Amino acid sequence: GIPKLNDAALLRNQAYVNGAWIGAESTFDVTNPADGATLASVPNLGADDARRAIDAANAAFPAWAAKTAKERAGILRAWFDLMIAHADDLAALMTAEQGKPVAEAKGEVMYGASFVEWFAEEAKRVSGDVPASTWADKRMVVLKQPVGVCAAITPWNFPIAMITRKVAPAIAAGCTIVLKPAEQTPLSALALAELAQRAGFPAGVINILTADSQRSIEVGRVLCDSPIVRHLSFTGSTPVGRILMQQCAPTIKKLGLELGGHAPFIVFEDADIDAAVEGALVSKYRNAGQTCVCTNRFYVHDAVYDSFVAKLAEGAKKIKVGNGFEQGVSQGPLIDDQAIGKVKDHVADAVAKGAKLLAGGKLHALGGQFYEPTVLADVTGDMKIMQEETFGPVAAVTRFTTEEEVIAAANDTEFGLASYFYSRDIGRVWRVAEKLDYGMVGINTGIISNEVGPFGGVKQSGLGREGSKYGIDEYLEIKYLCMGGV
Ligand code: ADP
């Protein structure tokens, strides 16, 4: 079950619409991926509830947009302070429903809260322009205004951060929002709603709809179809992103899409190998490999290959797997059986095609949804793991000899989210960074995410950027005023 919370009211089993807690005729269970235990049942809402939530957000919009940025910033700041004050409870709820180790969950709470703090500040810095007019008797002014009612659909791998990274900039800009969190992790979302209510957001500014996987499709369709909703932000898989983009075409919605990745991690011969191994371990095994910026492919120069793979395998074997609440555990369970199935498939395919297993390679002794931290060496381009997103704790390592060859291999994918490389040659650092077709490049580091850097991908990894000074632009329209008779 759920460990005892300091503030029991953070465990909510109702959804939050128009400032009120609502139920539904039917509910669905939220389970703990570590042991399958049922944690809670939450409302299984549908199309009508989605329409009501959109109407509530629409009704709340004019007054919220009319508040000063400083007023909105104050409420966002209060929400941030509450998240920090309740960080331990939020982390406990997250570990219970998502599985990540509690220290990592706490890290996500802080990371998630940082977006609320950041956009509370950024709200006050939205400004337009006064371009030099080309007419002597006319003046030109550029205003920025909130786009209107927004919708967001978020995944289970970061149950808090993926919500705040969308909701905070939207409401900072003066928009109102309807959010549909992942069916696996609604409790974190509802705890955020409870804290938002305490922070003092007016009714209808933030609305959270819970739905199971079937009903999520129905709710998603209503959010996409609605002409009232002017912006949809989605984080999830590329196939679902394509569906949502298509569904948003009739209403020409603005879109923010954070989709799949297939991050390459290149280790050049001049790299600090121990640092590269350390970066590789965090980039690969964090959240049990279930992040869209996790490395999927390691390319290691021939001259340092043997030592790198040996050290990586040694590091992988040291990772303690178990229930995220247990002391010293740094890798929890995968989210569900389907996730385990994909990992098994990628490993079996690679081994059948000649890859060498240097660590792990099978279900963990704990059984269930626990999988061993795995290292596969001598991987080749024809293996599934080199093309499809694995979303699990499997490192696939291959050898290269020239810079040109490895850049071509790294870019040979439909994805373009995160990439990483290790080198101490300053010329190479610039060259390679400029040539990688990715939205983000980690250089001599395996961790790149924070609230200040623009997060997002190119190619089929998505549209737009989240966080950073650019993140609020997604939720602002530009209006041009041309004033004659001056
Ligand atoms: P993941 O593989 O991370 O579960 P998905 O893209 O399947 O990624 O899911 C991410 C989010 O998208 C979840 O909130 C899920 O409920 C939602 N979702 C999945 N399919 C659809 C759909 N057809 N329409 C709307 N939302 C969907």
Structure overview:
The protein is of the alpha/beta class. The protein is built from 13 helices and 19 strands. Strands 13-14-15-12-11-16-17 form a seven-stranded mixed beta sheet, sandwiched between helices. A six-stranded mixed beta sheet has the order 8-7-6-9-10-18, sandwiched between helices. A two-stranded antiparallel sheet has the order 1-2. Helix 5 links the parallel strand 6 and strand 7. The structure holds adenosine-5'-diphosphate. Adenosine-5'-diphosphate binds next to helix 7 and helix 8. The site of adenosine-5'-diphosphate has 14 residues, from helix 7 and helix 8. This is NAD-dependent succinate-semialdehyde dehydrogenase.
| Bound ligands, each once | adenosine-5'-diphosphate
**Poorly predicted sequence stretches spanning 5 or more consecutive residues:** none
Portion in helices? 25-40%
Strand order of the largest sheet: 13-14-15-12-11-16-17
Distance between the termini: 69 Å
Number of strands: 19
Tell me the number of helical segments per DSSP (H or I, 4 or more residues long): 13
Average residue-wise pLDDT = 98
Structural class: alpha/beta
Q: Sheet with the most strands?
A: 7 strands, mixed
Radius of gyration: 23 Å
**Overall form:** globular
Portion of residues in beta strands equals 15-25%
